[in-house]
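>> received
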Amino acid sequence: MKRSSSLAALADVAGVLVFAAIGRRSHAEGLTVAGVAATAWPFLVGTAVGWLLVRGWRRPAAIAPTGLVVWVCTVVIGMLARRATSAGVAVSFDDVVAIADGGAIGRPHVARAMVASGWAADLRDAFDRYLGAGKPAYVAKDQLSMSDAIAMIHEAGGLAVLAHPGWAGTRERIEALTALGLDGVEVKHPGHSSSDTQRLKGLVELLGLVPSGGSDWHGAAEGARTIGMMQVPSEWLALQDARVAVRAGAGTPGD
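>> returned
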């Protein structure tokens, strides 16, 4: 009984010390109780199970050694989970490039690399814990002015199209962008309501712009958005091609 009592006392003391260390680290990082639970749950669960095994059984002499081993192992796993969350995840740029498979690289590809490497359960988990605004791996985009962005697109031989403006695609806004050289507006988009689509289509026709559309699919294997779901009319593609030809030959339409 003396040996088991010593092990139980050791478990209690170690638990207090480790909890104190976790609490101090969490306070320094500004984590809430929910944040600690989300990142250190293996440690919390393991500590509870280990403590019960060490302290809560009628024959602690037989159970204490096993319980202490389980407790120590789960503490180590929990510490590793906390360190991975605090210091970042081991996903290389080559992993992301391979997943993008020649396409334009974006945060969804980083999320997929994290899922493939076991750092996140799914894409939503990757964004919620790492890639979303304010999260450890979030990097804000450099902002271009609309006039600079339109000019750069034209210099590259492309058309400047306003992507899925939704309810914010007002006449005032689109007229102002048209004055800067806007070529078109994304009319068909899964996030647009039927009234958004009709309003934007009317503004495109009124202002002499080209309509565009798309599914906004980013490579997810599952989900409501799939390639071709918006059924963009082929006539719209012809209008875009004609606009590109006009810009290439005369600078701007109507010159």
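>> Residues 2-87 form one domain.
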